[in-house]
Design a protein that fits this description.
Layout (H helix, E strand, L loop, with lengths): L6 E7 L8 E10 L5 E8 L6 H4 L3 E8 L2 E18 L4 E8 L9 E10 H11 L6 E3 L6 E11 H12 L2 E4 L2 E4 L2 E4 L15 E4 L11 E2 L13 E8 L5 E6 L9 E6 L10 E4 L7 H15 L4 E7 L9 E5 L9 E12 L14 E10 L18 E6 L15 E3 L17 E2 L4 E2 L2 E2 L9 E6 L7 E7 L16 E5 L10 E5 L6 E5 L92 E5 L2 E6 L2 E5 L55 E3 L7 H10 L3 E3 L16
Parallel strand pairs: 8-13, 14-20, 16-18, 25-29, 36-37
Antiparallel strand pairs: 1-4, 2-3, 2-21, 3-6, 4-5, 5-6, 7-9, 10-13, 11-12, 15-19, 16-17, 19-22, 20-21, 21-22, 23-24, 23-28, 26-27, 28-29, 30-31, 31-32, 33-34, 34-35
């Protein structure tokens, strides 16, 4: 029970009766972005209290003045000590901390995607049952595309993210009653008021509680009835004067993400610059704010007041005006950043107590209220090295990527994500060569194991730098049996088969193998040279098409053999010249038909023989021999006819896109009968009148000339006409 007069401390633990404990000593520290830590020394008539009765119970510590509560502290018992027992009382010692302390007991590794920092922090505190945290933010934080908690306690992760954003947190104490926690708003030193959240996260101090003004009185003491500040020191330090931060984004690789801020109203040189890369920002808006935040944090102790007072309502994060200091500069508003409360109540020990009175005093730190105090950034965790991950994607898909060739993965340590397209953010993939619209590209497929590195050791900056096989995804060939093979082998997407380029380096078995599951296209913009020092074998399963737009030259030192199962068509746009070193032997199963538009000349050095049906005509040096059952000269009959030549034009080969690619500058294939000859020797005819009219017409269109042979002798001489 609290007393009607004087200073008193009381403690109420959980559902135990209020008078179980008597407080005879306390020391409690609270600070911006620090956990409240209070150590209470208490006595009780119950010697059998155990840790199970006290640990993790709510404890409410109240400071009373003349029967009125002037300050409350509430927290959770995190440590319990049973001390010695006296005549009637047993000594106990407990440590109280806010519920946020529990986050320090949770150590985790996990990934947050597309969430703002306040949402991430809300998740952390809700998981530990802190449902009434509030965010007092002037600036709406952007979403973090990919944010990793790696080997950190939940508390360290929360403090790190908050410091990066320039946020501080403070603990607003309230009342614990009947199993519920009622929060009190501090207004001019009062501890009672409407409900108020206990954990406050803020990026400013505009809404900081404002306490009643306090006098400076160097003669006051800890037991003085008049509230006052009786010790005050003001320290000013040389600190960083400017901050420059730079970062990089692959979305704008040529753009320098560089931002600078310089402190104002400096009382020392301004060329002490803190430069940092990477700045952990990807936009100018974030960069400007992060740079200002970092400067504020690095200068948070450049101007600091420290002192002592007997005001129990001094609380971190509150503003108070100091008055009656002999230096007017100090008579201003101050923002309290840290307070250590100390109290002694010997009367609680009853017969063991001495004659000393109850005392209270505190030691505090403060900065001028116009300073936007921010916490120092803690070191982010550094990845010890590369990690293994498995590529993920949606069900039913084998390859999942974005327009930059990025993929998603799942790390073995990740307990929360699923093996789908939401397992991680998009991760860039290192390629063997990467230029503007050129280079090497091989995308990891779903289920592949990859090696993930981290830029600057930052867990928020993963990049895939390698691939590995494992027991399920094994190499294409059995090892070490085929250890001399080097291969690039793909797998058909949503099908069976593969493409492959393979090198065999076994001595005397060196081999290069190329396999195209369907089509193989080769494009050479200029020359192609191929040298085969032994045999060349080519098998075409169906048709083969070839188109040479210029000339084709072929030399065979040995023999050439061809077998054509069907018809053979040969179309020559100009003349056809054949030279045989020995004989030309032609055999047709049914018919050989030679047809010329003008003339056919058969010239043999020794003999020409025509033989058919038992009759023959032979021309040799001895003369002309004609033999047959009946020989007719101008006595009827007619010439035999042969089958007309029907040479089929070749089909042109397809281009790389599967369609014919005609060359406008190349000669077109035309029927030989319609091809215009630019230069023709005259044809010598013995009797022009005997020529058929159709032959004359066709020859005229073709530009052929006819010359009469007159009385030309065997040597080509004519006594009538001059043929020069």
């Amino acid at each position: 029970m609290h007393q009607a007069k004087g200073l008193q401390f009381t403690a109420h633990v959980g559902e135990l009766p209020e008078n179980v404990f008597s407080v005879f000593g306390l020391e409690l520290t609270e600070g911006l972005s620090e956990l409240v830590h209070g150590r209470l020394k208490m006595a009780s008539n119950l010697p059998t209290l155990a840790a199970a009765d006290i640990l993790e119970q709510w404890l409410e510590l109240t400071i009373w003045q003349n029967g009125a509560a002037i300050r409350r502290f509430t927290g959770v018992v995190s440590e319990f000590v049973r001390g010695d027992s006296g005549h009637r009382r047993t000594h106990y010692e407990v440590v109280i901390q806010p519920p946020l302390w529990r986050l320090g007991l949770m150590h985790n590794s996990r990934i947050f995607q597309s969430q703002s920092t306040d949402n991430i922090l809300s998740t952390l505190v809700r998981e530990r049952g802190i449902a009434d945290a509030v965010f007092d933010l002037q600036h709406t934080p952007p979403e973090r595309e990919y944010c990793v908690q790696h080997r950190e306690s939940d508390l360290a992760f929360l403090e790190r993210l908050a410091a990066e954003e320039g946020w501080h947190y403070r603990y607003q104490h309230g009342r614990y009653q009947h199993g519920r926690y009622h929060h009190g708003r501090y207004q001019h030193g009062s501890v009672d008021g409407q409900e108020q959240p206990s954990l406050i996260v803020a990026d400013n101090h505009r809404n900081a509680p404002r306490l009643e003004a306090v006098e400076y009185n160097a003669k006051a003491g800890g037991s003085s009835r008049q509230p006052a500040v009786f010790r005050l020191r003001y320290e000013q330090r040389v600190r960083t004067a400017a901050v420059a931060m730079k970062d990089y984004t692959f979305h704008k690789p040529a753009y320098g993400l560089m931002h600078e801020h310089t402190a104002s109203s400096l009382e020392h040189r301004d060329d002490y610059q803190h430069y940092e890369y990477p700045g952990r920002f990807k936009t100018d808006a974030s960069g400007k704010r992060f740079t200002q935040v970092r400067l504020d944090a690095l200068r948070n102790d450049a101007s600091v007041a420290s002192g002592e007072s007997n005001r129990p309502d001094f609380t971190c994060g509150a503003k108070v005006q100091l008055t009656r200091h002999n230096n007017e500069r100090f008579n201003q508003d101050w923002l309290i950043t840290r307070v250590t409360h100390s109290g002694s109540q010997p009367q609680a020990l009853e017969e063991e107590a001495g004659a000393e009175p109850t005392t209270y005093h505190n030691r505090f730190s403060a900065v001028p209220a116009h300073i936007n105090w921010r916490p120092r950034c803690t070191q982010r965790p550094l990845m010890d090295g590369p990690q293994i991950a498995i590529v993920t994607g949606p069900d039913g898909e084998e390859i999942h990527c974005d327009e930059y060739g990025r993929v998603k993965v799942r790390f073995p340590w990740d307990r929360y994500s699923e093996n789908n397209q939401h397992s991680s953010a998009w991760l860039r993939v290192s390629q063997g060569w990467a230029g503007g619209q050129y280079g090497f590209m091989a995308l990891p497929r779903i289920g592949h194991e990859v090696i993930v590195s981290f830029l600057d050791g930052d867990p928020d900056q993963p990049i895939i730098t390698g691939r590995t096989y494992h027991a399920t995804n094994t190499p294409p060939y059995a090892l070490p049996l085929h250890k001399t093979r080097t291969t690039l082998k793909t797998q058909t997407h949503k099908g069976e088969g593969s493409n492959e380029l393979r090198f065999e380096d076994e001595v005397n078995k060196e081999h290069i193998y190329v396999h195209a599951q369907k089509n193989l296209d080769l494009l050479t913009q200029n020359n192609r040279t191929e040298v085969i020092k032994n045999d060349s074998h080519l098998t075409v399963g169906q048709n083969r098409f070839s188109h040479t737009k210029g000339n084709e030259h072929s030399t065979i030192n040995g023999e050439q053999r061809q077998h054509i199962g069907g018809d053979y068509s040969l179309t020559t746009g100009g003349s056809h010249h054949s030279h045989f070193g020995k004989a030309q032997l032609v055999e047709a199963g049914t018919e050989i038909h030679h047809k010329a538009g003008l003339k056919v000349v058969i010239d043999a050095g020794a003999e020409v023989t025509l033989s058919a049906g038992g009759s023959f005509l032979k021309l040799d040096p001895n003369g002309i021999t004609i033999s047959g059952p009946l020989v007719r000269f101008n006595s009827g009959g007619g010439p035999g006819s042969g089958s007309a030549a029907t040479a089929q034009p070749p089909e042109l080969p397809q281009g790389l896109n599967g369609h014919e690619q005609p060359d406008k500058g190349s000669a077109q294939l035309t029927d030989i009968g319609q091809r215009q000859h630019t230069a023709t020797e005259p044809a010598i005819i013995s009797d022009l009148s005997s020529l058929d009219k159709r032959i004359k017409t066709r020859a005229a269109k073709a530009g052929h000339l006819f010359v009469s042979a007159c009385e030309m002798d065997s040597s080509g001489e004519c006594a009538i006409h001059d043929h020069d």
